[in-house]
Design a protein that fits this description.
about 160 residues, alpha+beta, 3 helices, 8 strands, elongated
């Protein structure tokens, strides 16, 4: 799962940290392999045309396609550089979200009054999870898939009871 508890559950004490991040199906190392293999597969049929003017007519379009694919995957990586950390101690719950661009977003509330809410429908995503405490309600884990959010909801309910 793309989240990690420190220390790992069960939480028998009030101090713990939960780190969440978006799932990456294509790691950076695999990205390089994918781009290399794609370039080879695209340019392999062009080798037959090396001595003809058709080669020079098609080459810019193949290069544009490789550049467009590389750019699109890099933009996707940058947009997915999100990290959420929920930290608790005996009295306070503190949530910090680091976005790819812009300043980090922070939320803090008295741990005793923090409650976890699941919105199966009606939220921006299915099984939307929010934390309510103080005068605000904030989302957590919206980038996770619906089944991961359900598991996170159960884990958060148990962890915040201590």
């Amino acid at each position: 799962m793309p989240y990690e508890w420190s220390p790992s559950p069960p939480h028998d004490r009030p101090n713990w940290r939960l780190s969440l991040w978006p799932y990456r199906s294509l790691l950076r190392r695999d990205f390089a392999i994918f781009m290399g293999a794609t370039a080879i597969l695209v340019f392999l049929p062009l080798l037959v045309l090396v001595d003809s003017p058709v080669f020079w007519g098609l080459l810019p379009f193949f290069l544009l396609m490789i550049w467009g694919l590389w750019t699109a995957l890099n933009v996707s990586y940058r947009r997915g550089e999100v990290l959420e950390e929920l930290t608790t101690d005996a009295t306070t719950a503190y949530l910090r979200r680091v976005n790819p661009k812009g300043a980090p977003q922070e939320w803090q509330a008295n741990r005793y009054w923090v409650s976890v809410h699941l919105h199966p429908t009606g939220g921006p995503v299915p099984n939307y999870i929010t934390l309510r405490g103080g005068d605000r309600e904030v989302e957590i884990g919206a980038f996770l898939d619906p089944s991961e959010r359900l598991a996170l909801f159960d884990d958060l309910k148990r962890a915040l009871r201590v």
